[in-house]
2-isopropylmalate synthase
Amino acid sequence: MARVNVFDTTLRDGEQSAGVNLNRLEKIEIAKQLERFGVDIMEAGFPASSQEDFNAVKEIADTVRNCSVTGLARSFKSDIDSAWEALKGGAEPRIHIFLATSPIHMTHKLKKTPEEVVETAVESVAYAKQKFPHVQWSAEDATRSDYDFLVHIIEKVIEAGADVINLPDTVGYTTPDEYAKLFKYVRENVRNSEGVILSAHCHDDLGMAVSNSLSAIEAGAGQIEGTINGIGERAGNAALEEISVALEIRKDRYDFQTGLVLKEIKRTSDLVSKLTGMQVPGNKAVVGRNAFAHESGIHQDGVLKEATTYEIITPNMVGIESNNLVLGKHSGRHAFKQKAESFGFELSEAKLKEAFSSFKDLTGKKKEVTDEDLFAILTDKQTEN
Ligand code: KIV
Ligand code: ZN
């Protein structure tokens, strides 16, 4: 089974989510949890962007021992120097340099010719390689770049010392089959790519970040990048908890493994949500409040008989204690009885029937029937003559 490296960028791309601003201590707390989660590489920030980010990246690199810590840098010597000062105390220092390669970015943002972009990229990678044992180079907006230009610039940066090449879908534009094609094209056409890891970095503008990442893995990506809860610029990045659980649950299809400790998923998700202030949507895959909640009578009955009828992931696998049978207007008598028993009520069948009917009446009046409501109904029935 092939091993895929997990590159977490919650503290860099994730922190670029609108409205998120983590302080040094919050970043360190998240970094320690990411280490427990088992990521291979964590991007702790962008050291040249501010003194605060520099300090946080440095403290994380000096503290975290079980994974490689990296920091983002533009193709400037000053950014690379700043990254080295922040990261040099790390267990396995690594820099992440990026430069845009798409016609749109080269023309309008960089205002450079393709030849100038190649020259800048090569110079920056060669300079970084004098300091860093590992250099990752990203072709920003790779999915809207010309394939043959990509092949050319990638060959040059590998010659200059890059050992990981990232092909980001910066604006979340690609589709699973296109992204797979890009990885295959680069692997087959870059002459010196042997021993070099190709990395996938997907954004979720069209809701395809996780599918695109899985597709890249199948097409030969040896590293996937993403964030916890899928937070990040605009619609966010690929959610690492979703990718890792998909690889585990669909082992029949994906013959790949990561070093992630899936049981740490819930704790990691909760911490990131709390410290960033970004709430996890209730219906979010794997970690949403409703991901293991069953509301309809048919589903509840099925799950009570055999959980696998409606659950493909066991809550335990991702660090959640149990599933949750939510009592609402679609619920049936089986789940109601189970809830009453879990509260410690032992009602006769007749009383239980009456209580169930009061509960059904209430679902017509209230959007959400709480445990307190149920408790009150059951207490009434138990105490009445
Ligand atoms: O999405 C992107 O292109 C990035 C780069 C900095 C790698 O985040
Ligand atoms: Zn990104």
Q: What stands out?
A: The mean pLDDT is 97.
